[in-house]
Automatic annotation (TrEMBL):
PANTHER family cross-referenced by the UniProt entry: ABHYDROLASE DOMAIN-CONTAINING PROTEIN (PTHR10794), ALPHA_BETA HYDROLASE 1, ISOFORM A (PTHR10794:SF63)
Signal peptide (from-to): none
Record's keyword annotation contains Hydrolase: yes
Transmembrane stretches, start-end: 13-36
Enzyme class: transferase
Species, as recorded: Penicillium malachiteum
UniProt xrefs under InterPro entries: AB_hydrolase_1, AB_hydrolase_4_sf, AB_hydrolase_fold
Catalytic reaction list: an aliphatic alcohol + acetyl-CoA = an acetyl ester + CoA
UniProt-annotated stretches for the region Disordered: 466-491
Keywords for this protein: Hydrolase, Membrane, Transferase, Transmembrane, Transmembrane helix
Annotated Pfam families: Abhydrolase_1 (PF00561)
Record's protein name: alcohol O-acetyltransferase
Location of the AB hydrolase-1 domain: 176-394
Protein backbone atom coordinates (compact mmCIF):
# COMPACT_ATOMS: atom_id res chain seq x y z
CA UNK A 1 0.00 0.00 0.00
CA UNK A 2 2.94 2.30 -0.12
CA UNK A 3 6.39 1.40 -0.88
CA UNK A 4 8.28 -1.70 -0.03
CA UNK A 5 10.89 -0.62 2.42
CA UNK A 6 14.45 -1.49 2.76
CA UNK A 7 13.73 -3.45 5.97
CA UNK A 8 15.73 -6.50 5.22
CA UNK A 9 13.55 -7.99 2.57
CA UNK A 10 16.49 -8.93 0.41
CA UNK A 11 16.54 -12.60 1.31
CA UNK A 12 12.83 -12.82 0.71
CA UNK A 13 13.21 -10.88 -2.50
CA UNK A 14 15.88 -13.21 -3.73
CA UNK A 15 13.74 -16.26 -3.13
CA UNK A 16 10.73 -14.65 -4.73
CA UNK A 17 12.82 -13.58 -7.70
CA UNK A 18 14.14 -17.07 -8.08
CA UNK A 19 10.62 -18.31 -7.89
CA UNK A 20 9.24 -15.97 -10.50
CA UNK A 21 12.23 -16.44 -12.78
CA UNK A 22 13.07 -20.12 -12.59
CA UNK A 23 10.59 -22.14 -10.63
CA UNK A 24 7.38 -21.28 -12.41
CA UNK A 25 6.97 -24.43 -14.46
CA UNK A 26 4.86 -23.04 -17.24
CA UNK A 27 6.37 -19.98 -18.82
CA UNK A 28 3.72 -17.37 -18.86
CA UNK A 29 2.89 -16.33 -22.40
CA UNK A 30 2.55 -12.66 -21.49
CA UNK A 31 6.02 -12.84 -20.03
CA UNK A 32 7.42 -13.99 -23.34
CA UNK A 33 5.46 -11.33 -25.16
CA UNK A 34 6.87 -8.69 -22.84
CA UNK A 35 10.34 -9.78 -23.79
CA UNK A 36 9.70 -9.73 -27.49
CA UNK A 37 7.58 -6.63 -27.56
CA UNK A 38 7.99 -4.77 -24.28
CA UNK A 39 4.90 -2.62 -24.23
CA UNK A 40 2.06 -2.44 -21.75
CA UNK A 41 -1.50 -2.23 -23.01
CA UNK A 42 -3.30 0.97 -22.01
CA UNK A 43 -7.07 0.96 -21.36
CA UNK A 44 -9.58 3.64 -20.42
CA UNK A 45 -12.67 3.10 -18.27
CA UNK A 46 -15.33 5.80 -18.02
CA UNK A 47 -19.00 6.56 -18.50
CA UNK A 48 -20.04 6.08 -22.11
CA UNK A 49 -23.28 8.02 -22.08
CA UNK A 50 -22.56 10.82 -19.66
CA UNK A 51 -19.74 13.30 -20.11
CA UNK A 52 -18.32 15.88 -17.81
CA UNK A 53 -17.97 18.91 -20.07
CA UNK A 54 -15.11 21.27 -19.33
CA UNK A 55 -14.14 24.59 -20.85
CA UNK A 56 -10.84 24.84 -22.62
CA UNK A 57 -9.09 28.12 -23.22
CA UNK A 58 -7.10 28.16 -26.44
CA UNK A 59 -3.96 30.24 -26.86
CA UNK A 60 -5.91 32.99 -28.59
CA UNK A 61 -8.17 33.17 -25.55
CA UNK A 62 -11.15 31.61 -27.31
CA UNK A 63 -13.19 29.19 -25.19
CA UNK A 64 -14.24 25.82 -26.46
CA UNK A 65 -15.91 22.86 -24.93
CA UNK A 66 -14.06 19.63 -24.22
CA UNK A 67 -14.75 16.65 -22.01
CA UNK A 68 -12.92 15.10 -19.10
CA UNK A 69 -12.45 11.95 -21.15
CA UNK A 70 -10.72 13.93 -23.90
CA UNK A 71 -8.46 15.63 -21.39
CA UNK A 72 -7.51 12.27 -19.86
CA UNK A 73 -6.84 10.75 -23.26
CA UNK A 74 -4.75 13.73 -24.29
CA UNK A 75 -2.72 13.48 -21.08
CA UNK A 76 -1.95 9.79 -21.47
CA UNK A 77 1.00 8.75 -23.67
CA UNK A 78 0.08 6.41 -26.54
CA UNK A 79 2.45 3.74 -25.36
CA UNK A 80 3.68 2.26 -22.13
CA UNK A 81 7.19 0.95 -22.74
CA UNK A 82 8.67 -0.35 -19.51
CA UNK A 83 12.01 -1.90 -18.66
CA UNK A 84 11.97 -5.40 -20.21
CA UNK A 85 14.21 -6.70 -17.42
CA UNK A 86 11.37 -6.00 -15.02
CA UNK A 87 8.91 -7.96 -17.10
CA UNK A 88 6.14 -8.51 -14.61
CA UNK A 89 4.29 -6.79 -11.81
CA UNK A 90 6.34 -8.43 -9.07
CA UNK A 91 9.66 -7.37 -10.54
CA UNK A 92 8.35 -3.86 -11.14
CA UNK A 93 7.22 -3.76 -7.51
CA UNK A 94 10.41 -5.26 -6.06
CA UNK A 95 12.50 -2.75 -7.94
CA UNK A 96 11.07 0.02 -5.76
CA UNK A 97 12.86 -1.64 -2.83
CA UNK A 98 16.26 -1.21 -4.49
CA UNK A 99 15.87 2.56 -4.23
CA UNK A 100 17.65 2.83 -7.55
CA UNK A 101 17.49 6.02 -9.55
CA UNK A 102 17.23 8.22 -6.45
CA UNK A 103 18.32 11.27 -8.38
CA UNK A 104 15.08 13.20 -8.07
CA UNK A 105 15.80 15.81 -5.43
CA UNK A 106 12.86 17.59 -3.83
CA UNK A 107 13.49 19.91 -0.87
CA UNK A 108 10.90 20.47 1.82
CA UNK A 109 10.14 22.75 4.72
CA UNK A 110 7.90 21.40 7.44
CA UNK A 111 5.01 22.95 9.31
CA UNK A 112 3.37 21.22 12.26
CA UNK A 113 -0.41 21.38 12.53
CA UNK A 114 -2.40 20.83 15.72
CA UNK A 115 -5.59 18.94 14.94
CA UNK A 116 -8.67 21.10 15.27
CA UNK A 117 -11.00 18.22 16.02
CA UNK A 118 -11.74 16.76 19.44
CA UNK A 119 -12.11 13.30 17.95
CA UNK A 120 -8.72 13.23 16.23
CA UNK A 121 -6.53 15.20 18.61
CA UNK A 122 -2.79 15.45 18.14
CA UNK A 123 -0.27 16.92 15.75
CA UNK A 124 0.74 16.15 12.20
CA UNK A 125 3.43 17.34 9.79
CA UNK A 126 2.94 18.92 6.38
CA UNK A 127 5.98 19.26 4.13
CA UNK A 128 6.02 22.09 1.57
CA UNK A 129 8.21 21.71 -1.51
CA UNK A 130 10.65 24.63 -1.73
CA UNK A 131 13.62 25.69 -3.84
CA UNK A 132 16.84 23.73 -3.14
CA UNK A 133 18.68 25.06 -0.08
CA UNK A 134 21.58 24.13 2.19
CA UNK A 135 20.52 22.09 5.18
CA UNK A 136 20.68 24.13 8.38
CA UNK A 137 22.92 22.98 11.26
CA UNK A 138 21.28 21.19 14.21
CA UNK A 139 19.14 23.72 16.02
CA UNK A 140 15.63 25.06 15.99
CA UNK A 141 15.20 24.43 12.26
CA UNK A 142 16.00 20.74 12.66
CA UNK A 143 13.96 20.45 15.85
CA UNK A 144 17.03 19.63 17.88
CA UNK A 145 14.88 19.17 20.97
CA UNK A 146 12.91 16.53 19.06
CA UNK A 147 9.63 18.00 20.13
CA UNK A 148 7.93 17.11 16.87
CA UNK A 149 10.49 14.73 15.42
CA UNK A 150 11.63 11.23 16.17
CA UNK A 151 15.09 10.77 17.73
CA UNK A 152 16.62 9.90 14.35
CA UNK A 153 15.91 13.40 13.05
CA UNK A 154 14.17 14.65 9.92
CA UNK A 155 14.26 12.86 6.55
CA UNK A 156 16.84 14.15 4.06
CA UNK A 157 16.33 17.50 2.30
CA UNK A 158 13.82 18.49 4.98
CA UNK A 159 13.91 21.08 7.76
CA UNK A 160 11.40 23.23 9.58
CA UNK A 161 10.14 26.60 8.41
CA UNK A 162 11.52 29.43 10.52
CA UNK A 163 9.01 31.61 12.34
CA UNK A 164 9.62 34.38 9.78
CA UNK A 165 9.07 32.06 6.87
CA UNK A 166 5.81 30.86 8.39
CA UNK A 167 4.65 34.42 8.84
CA UNK A 168 5.42 35.31 5.24
CA UNK A 169 3.81 32.15 3.87
CA UNK A 170 0.31 33.48 3.13
CA UNK A 171 0.00 34.67 -0.43
CA UNK A 172 -2.65 35.91 -2.81
CA UNK A 173 -0.88 34.49 -5.86
CA UNK A 174 -2.91 32.22 -8.11
CA UNK A 175 -0.43 29.42 -8.72
CA UNK A 176 -1.93 25.94 -8.85
CA UNK A 177 -1.19 23.98 -5.70
CA UNK A 178 -1.03 20.23 -5.29
CA UNK A 179 -1.74 18.44 -2.01
CA UNK A 180 -0.12 15.01 -1.86
CA UNK A 181 -1.00 11.93 0.21
CA UNK A 182 1.57 9.12 0.34
CA UNK A 183 1.17 5.37 0.78
CA UNK A 184 0.70 3.16 3.83
CA UNK A 185 3.86 3.79 5.82
CA UNK A 186 5.68 6.28 3.60
CA UNK A 187 6.17 10.01 3.70
CA UNK A 188 7.11 13.07 1.67
CA UNK A 189 10.51 11.53 0.90
CA UNK A 190 9.09 8.64 -1.15
CA UNK A 191 10.73 8.31 -4.55
CA UNK A 192 7.48 7.55 -6.41
CA UNK A 193 6.04 10.76 -5.01
CA UNK A 194 9.08 12.82 -5.96
CA UNK A 195 8.84 11.47 -9.51
CA UNK A 196 5.57 13.41 -9.80
CA UNK A 197 6.47 16.43 -7.67
CA UNK A 198 9.87 17.20 -9.22
CA UNK A 199 8.67 17.82 -12.81
CA UNK A 200 5.80 19.98 -11.52
CA UNK A 201 7.95 22.33 -9.44
CA UNK A 202 10.81 22.42 -11.92
CA UNK A 203 9.66 25.58 -13.72
CA UNK A 204 8.16 27.18 -10.62
CA UNK A 205 4.58 27.08 -11.84
CA UNK A 206 3.27 24.70 -9.17
CA UNK A 207 3.25 24.79 -5.40
CA UNK A 208 3.21 21.42 -3.65
CA UNK A 209 2.71 20.18 -0.11
CA UNK A 210 2.66 16.65 1.30
CA UNK A 211 0.39 15.80 4.22
CA UNK A 212 2.30 13.12 6.10
CA UNK A 213 0.15 10.53 7.81
CA UNK A 214 0.38 10.73 11.60
CA UNK A 215 3.73 9.45 12.81
CA UNK A 216 5.17 9.08 9.30
CA UNK A 217 8.25 10.79 7.80
CA UNK A 218 9.92 10.93 11.21
CA UNK A 219 7.14 12.98 12.73
CA UNK A 220 6.18 12.44 16.34
CA UNK A 221 2.63 11.87 17.44
CA UNK A 222 1.38 13.65 20.52
CA UNK A 223 -1.70 11.50 21.20
CA UNK A 224 -2.55 7.86 20.57
CA UNK A 225 -4.27 8.77 17.28
CA UNK A 226 -2.54 7.27 14.23
CA UNK A 227 -4.47 6.96 10.97
CA UNK A 228 -6.46 4.47 8.97
CA UNK A 229 -7.70 3.90 5.43
CA UNK A 230 -10.42 6.53 5.82
CA UNK A 231 -8.41 8.98 7.90
CA UNK A 232 -9.67 12.07 6.09
CA UNK A 233 -9.41 14.42 9.03
CA UNK A 234 -5.91 15.79 8.43
CA UNK A 235 -6.30 16.47 4.71
CA UNK A 236 -9.65 18.14 5.46
CA UNK A 237 -8.05 20.48 7.98
CA UNK A 238 -5.07 21.11 5.69
CA UNK A 239 -7.26 22.01 2.71
CA UNK A 240 -9.25 24.44 4.87
CA UNK A 241 -6.01 26.03 5.98
CA UNK A 242 -4.67 26.21 2.41
CA UNK A 243 -7.93 27.76 1.22
CA UNK A 244 -7.58 30.48 3.84
CA UNK A 245 -3.83 31.00 3.47
CA UNK A 246 -3.77 30.97 -0.35
CA UNK A 247 -7.25 32.19 -1.27
CA UNK A 248 -6.52 32.42 -5.00
CA UNK A 249 -4.68 29.17 -5.56
CA UNK A 250 -6.65 26.48 -7.34
CA UNK A 251 -6.09 23.36 -5.25
CA UNK A 252 -5.44 19.93 -6.73
CA UNK A 253 -4.75 16.70 -4.91
CA UNK A 254 -3.05 13.39 -5.55
CA UNK A 255 -2.97 10.22 -3.48
CA UNK A 256 -0.76 7.20 -3.91
CA UNK A 257 -1.78 3.72 -2.83
CA UNK A 258 -3.42 3.91 0.61
CA UNK A 259 -3.22 7.70 0.28
CA UNK A 260 -5.35 7.38 -2.88
CA UNK A 261 -7.96 5.44 -0.92
CA UNK A 262 -7.94 8.13 1.77
CA UNK A 263 -8.17 10.88 -0.84
CA UNK A 264 -11.10 9.23 -2.66
CA UNK A 265 -12.87 8.94 0.70
CA UNK A 266 -12.21 12.60 1.40
CA UNK A 267 -13.40 13.81 -2.02
CA UNK A 268 -16.55 11.69 -1.78
CA UNK A 269 -17.32 12.92 1.73
CA UNK A 270 -16.89 16.52 0.59
CA UNK A 271 -19.22 15.99 -2.37
CA UNK A 272 -20.55 19.25 -3.83
CA UNK A 273 -18.66 21.34 -1.27
CA UNK A 274 -15.27 20.04 -2.36
CA UNK A 275 -12.56 22.72 -2.56
CA UNK A 276 -10.29 20.55 -4.73
CA UNK A 277 -10.44 21.38 -8.45
CA UNK A 278 -9.12 18.07 -9.72
CA UNK A 279 -7.58 14.95 -8.26
CA UNK A 280 -5.42 11.99 -9.21
CA UNK A 281 -5.73 8.58 -7.58
CA UNK A 282 -2.73 6.38 -8.27
CA UNK A 283 -2.43 2.66 -7.47
CA UNK A 284 -5.31 2.74 -5.02
CA UNK A 285 -6.41 -0.52 -3.35
CA UNK A 286 -10.05 0.72 -3.67
CA UNK A 287 -12.02 -2.23 -2.38
CA UNK A 288 -9.91 -3.10 0.64
CA UNK A 289 -11.82 -6.27 1.47
CA UNK A 290 -11.08 -7.63 -2.01
CA UNK A 291 -7.52 -6.32 -2.28
CA UNK A 292 -6.75 -7.86 1.07
CA UNK A 293 -8.38 -11.13 0.08
CA UNK A 294 -6.35 -11.39 -3.14
CA UNK A 295 -3.18 -10.37 -1.32
CA UNK A 296 -3.69 -13.23 1.10
CA UNK A 297 -4.54 -15.72 -1.65
CA UNK A 298 -1.04 -16.33 -2.97
CA UNK A 299 2.20 -17.27 -1.34
CA UNK A 300 4.02 -14.18 -2.62
CA UNK A 301 1.13 -11.97 -1.58
CA UNK A 302 1.06 -13.37 1.93
CA UNK A 303 4.71 -14.08 2.63
CA UNK A 304 6.28 -11.14 0.80
CA UNK A 305 3.85 -8.26 0.51
CA UNK A 306 1.52 -8.73 3.45
CA UNK A 307 4.45 -9.62 5.68
CA UNK A 308 6.48 -6.61 4.52
CA UNK A 309 3.54 -4.26 4.97
CA UNK A 310 2.82 -5.80 8.38
CA UNK A 311 6.48 -5.44 9.37
CA UNK A 312 6.48 -1.79 8.30
CA UNK A 313 3.40 -1.03 10.33
CA UNK A 314 4.83 -2.87 13.32
CA UNK A 315 7.99 -0.75 13.02
CA UNK A 316 5.87 2.41 12.85
CA UNK A 317 3.95 1.22 15.91
CA UNK A 318 7.19 0.54 17.79
CA UNK A 319 8.47 4.06 17.06
CA UNK A 320 5.36 5.48 18.69
CA UNK A 321 4.66 2.80 21.25
CA UNK A 322 4.86 5.15 24.22
CA UNK A 323 2.02 7.31 22.93
CA UNK A 324 -0.08 4.53 21.43
CA UNK A 325 0.07 2.35 24.50
CA UNK A 326 -1.62 5.08 26.51
CA UNK A 327 -4.76 3.83 24.81
CA UNK A 328 -5.93 1.12 27.21
CA UNK A 329 -7.66 -0.74 24.37
CA UNK A 330 -4.35 -1.46 22.63
CA UNK A 331 -2.59 -4.67 23.64
CA UNK A 332 1.07 -3.85 22.98
CA UNK A 333 2.28 -7.43 23.22
CA UNK A 334 -0.37 -8.62 20.78
CA UNK A 335 0.78 -6.02 18.24
CA UNK A 336 4.41 -7.08 18.70
CA UNK A 337 3.49 -10.63 17.73
CA UNK A 338 1.82 -9.85 14.42
CA UNK A 339 3.27 -10.91 11.07
CA UNK A 340 0.79 -9.97 8.35
CA UNK A 341 -0.93 -6.71 7.54
CA UNK A 342 -4.40 -8.00 8.43
CA UNK A 343 -3.08 -9.06 11.83
CA UNK A 344 -1.84 -5.54 12.40
CA UNK A 345 -5.23 -4.17 11.42
CA UNK A 346 -6.90 -6.64 13.80
CA UNK A 347 -4.58 -5.71 16.67
CA UNK A 348 -4.55 -1.93 16.15
CA UNK A 349 -7.28 -0.62 13.88
CA UNK A 350 -10.07 -2.75 15.37
CA UNK A 351 -9.61 -1.79 19.04
CA UNK A 352 -8.64 1.82 18.22
CA UNK A 353 -11.57 2.67 16.03
CA UNK A 354 -14.16 0.19 17.18
CA UNK A 355 -14.33 -2.17 14.23
CA UNK A 356 -15.39 -5.67 15.29
CA UNK A 357 -13.21 -7.40 12.65
CA UNK A 358 -10.59 -6.35 10.15
CA UNK A 359 -13.04 -7.34 7.42
CA UNK A 360 -15.56 -4.86 8.78
CA UNK A 361 -12.81 -2.24 8.77
CA UNK A 362 -11.83 -3.01 5.17
CA UNK A 363 -15.42 -2.86 3.95
CA UNK A 364 -16.15 0.36 5.82
CA UNK A 365 -12.95 2.16 4.83
CA UNK A 366 -13.04 1.18 1.14
CA UNK A 367 -13.38 4.00 -1.35
CA UNK A 368 -15.08 1.99 -4.09
CA UNK A 369 -18.58 3.24 -3.15
CA UNK A 370 -17.60 6.65 -1.80
CA UNK A 371 -16.04 7.51 -5.16
CA UNK A 372 -19.55 7.68 -6.59
CA UNK A 373 -20.03 10.78 -4.46
CA UNK A 374 -17.03 12.64 -5.90
CA UNK A 375 -18.16 15.80 -7.69
CA UNK A 376 -14.85 17.08 -9.05
CA UNK A 377 -12.90 15.72 -12.03
CA UNK A 378 -10.52 12.90 -11.19
CA UNK A 379 -8.08 10.64 -12.98
CA UNK A 380 -7.19 7.16 -11.75
CA UNK A 381 -3.98 5.43 -12.82
CA UNK A 382 -3.67 1.73 -12.04
CA UNK A 383 -1.56 -1.21 -13.23
CA UNK A 384 -3.58 -4.35 -13.81
CA UNK A 385 -0.69 -6.53 -12.65
CA UNK A 386 -0.34 -4.61 -9.39
CA UNK A 387 0.13 -7.36 -6.79
CA UNK A 388 -0.99 -5.16 -3.89
CA UNK A 389 -3.74 -2.95 -5.30
CA UNK A 390 -5.04 -5.86 -7.31
CA UNK A 391 -7.13 -5.73 -10.46
CA UNK A 392 -9.96 -7.57 -8.71
CA UNK A 393 -10.44 -4.60 -6.40
CA UNK A 394 -10.71 -1.95 -9.14
CA UNK A 395 -14.04 -0.13 -9.56
CA UNK A 396 -14.51 -0.97 -13.26
CA UNK A 397 -18.31 -0.76 -13.11
CA UNK A 398 -18.42 2.31 -10.92
CA UNK A 399 -16.16 4.12 -13.38
CA UNK A 400 -18.82 3.60 -16.06
CA UNK A 401 -21.43 5.30 -13.84
CA UNK A 402 -19.72 8.52 -12.80
CA UNK A 403 -18.89 11.19 -15.37
CA UNK A 404 -16.46 12.77 -12.89
CA UNK A 405 -13.76 10.14 -13.17
CA UNK A 406 -11.69 8.32 -15.79
CA UNK A 407 -9.56 5.30 -14.98
CA UNK A 408 -6.47 4.58 -17.05
CA UNK A 409 -4.99 1.15 -16.56
CA UNK A 410 -1.85 -0.41 -17.95
CA UNK A 411 -1.47 -4.17 -18.24
CA UNK A 412 2.01 -3.94 -16.73
CA UNK A 413 3.58 -1.77 -14.04
CA UNK A 414 3.36 -3.43 -10.62
CA UNK A 415 2.59 -1.49 -7.46
CA UNK A 416 3.84 2.07 -8.00
CA UNK A 417 6.55 0.66 -10.24
CA UNK A 418 6.14 1.50 -13.95
CA UNK A 419 9.93 1.56 -14.38
CA UNK A 420 11.15 2.52 -17.81
CA UNK A 421 14.60 1.85 -19.18
CA UNK A 422 16.87 4.40 -17.51
CA UNK A 423 14.89 4.67 -14.27
CA UNK A 424 12.09 6.99 -15.43
CA UNK A 425 8.60 6.17 -14.23
CA UNK A 426 5.77 5.96 -16.76
CA UNK A 427 3.00 7.02 -14.37
CA UNK A 428 4.51 10.44 -13.84
CA UNK A 429 3.76 11.31 -17.49
CA UNK A 430 -0.04 10.93 -17.59
CA UNK A 431 -0.27 12.42 -14.10
CA UNK A 432 1.83 15.54 -14.66
CA UNK A 433 0.34 16.02 -18.14
CA UNK A 434 -3.16 15.83 -16.70
CA UNK A 435 -2.45 18.20 -13.84
CA UNK A 436 -0.85 20.70 -16.23
CA UNK A 437 -3.74 20.46 -18.68
CA UNK A 438 -6.30 20.92 -15.92
CA UNK A 439 -4.47 23.79 -14.28
CA UNK A 440 -3.30 25.63 -17.38
CA UNK A 441 -5.59 24.84 -20.29
CA UNK A 442 -8.93 24.21 -18.66
CA UNK A 443 -10.82 27.16 -17.24
CA UNK A 444 -11.46 25.68 -13.82
CA UNK A 445 -13.38 28.76 -12.70
CA UNK A 446 -16.17 27.45 -14.92
CA UNK A 447 -17.56 24.37 -13.17
CA UNK A 448 -17.77 21.19 -15.20
CA UNK A 449 -21.22 20.45 -16.60
CA UNK A 450 -22.65 16.97 -16.45
CA UNK A 451 -24.32 16.11 -19.74
CA UNK A 452 -27.04 13.99 -18.18
CA UNK A 453 -27.48 14.94 -14.53
CA UNK A 454 -30.31 12.38 -14.30
CA UNK A 455 -27.77 9.64 -14.77
CA UNK A 456 -25.50 10.63 -11.93
CA UNK A 457 -24.96 7.79 -9.50
CA UNK A 458 -27.26 8.18 -6.54
CA UNK A 459 -29.97 9.77 -8.68
CA UNK A 460 -32.73 7.44 -9.64
CA UNK A 461 -33.61 8.66 -13.10
CA UNK A 462 -37.24 9.56 -13.62
CA UNK A 463 -38.79 7.34 -16.24
CA UNK A 464 -41.03 9.21 -18.57
CA UNK A 465 -41.57 6.49 -21.12
CA UNK A 466 -44.97 7.36 -22.53
CA UNK A 467 -45.68 3.73 -23.28
CA UNK A 468 -45.37 2.81 -19.63
CA UNK A 469 -47.20 3.68 -16.46
CA UNK A 470 -46.03 6.73 -14.57
CA UNK A 471 -42.94 6.02 -12.47
CA UNK A 472 -44.41 6.07 -8.99
CA UNK A 473 -42.16 3.46 -7.42
CA UNK A 474 -40.43 4.61 -4.24
CA UNK A 475 -37.04 6.22 -4.72
CA UNK A 476 -34.72 5.27 -1.91
CA UNK A 477 -31.73 7.50 -1.51
CA UNK A 478 -28.31 5.98 -2.20
CA UNK A 479 -25.68 7.75 -0.09
CA UNK A 480 -22.29 6.63 -1.36
CA UNK A 481 -20.37 7.95 1.63
CA UNK A 482 -22.68 6.72 4.38
CA UNK A 483 -20.78 4.38 6.69
CA UNK A 484 -21.23 1.79 9.34
CA UNK A 485 -18.82 3.47 11.72
CA UNK A 486 -19.69 7.03 12.58
CA UNK A 487 -16.43 8.88 13.12
CA UNK A 488 -18.15 12.26 13.54
CA UNK A 489 -16.19 13.77 10.70
CA UNK A 490 -16.38 17.55 10.74
CA UNK A 491 -18.05 19.04 7.66
C1 LIG B 1 -4.93 -15.97 4.67
O1 LIG B 1 -4.53 -17.17 4.04
C2 LIG B 1 -4.22 -18.22 4.94
C3 LIG B 1 -3.63 -19.35 4.15
O2 LIG B 1 -4.44 -19.71 3.08
C4 LIG B 1 -5.48 -18.60 5.70
O3 LIG B 1 -5.19 -19.64 6.62
C5 LIG B 1 -5.99 -17.38 6.45
O4 LIG B 1 -7.21 -17.67 7.09
C6 LIG B 1 -6.17 -16.19 5.52
N1 LIG B 1 -6.47 -15.04 6.32
C7 LIG B 1 -7.32 -14.09 5.99
C8 LIG B 1 -7.54 -13.01 6.97
O5 LIG B 1 -7.93 -14.11 4.95
Amino acid sequence: FGYLPYIDIWSELASALALSLYLVPVINITMVLSWVCPSGRISFYHAKDNNLLLTKVSESGAKEQTSLVDVCRAATPDTCHLNPLLFNGHLQTFWTATKSGDNVPVYYKRKIFQADSAMFTGQYAVDFAVEPYDMPPEGELTDQERKYTQPGGLPGRTSFFSQEELESLPSDDSKPMLVVLHGLSGGSYELYLRHVVAPLIEDGTWEVCVVNSRGCAQSKISTGVLYNARATWDIRQTVKWLRKTFPNRPLFAIGFSLGANILANYLGEEGDACQIKGAVLCASPWNLDVSHFTLNQTWIGREIYSKTLGTNMKALFERHVDEISKNPRVDVEAVRKITYLHEFDRAIQCPTWGYPTEGAYYRDASSSDVMLGIRVPFLCVQAEDDPIASREALPFQEMTQTPYGVMVTTSWGGHLGWYEVGGGRWFSKPITNWLNLMAKEIDIQIPGVVENPDKLPGQIAHHDDLNKDADLAPKPDFGPSRRKLNMNLPQ
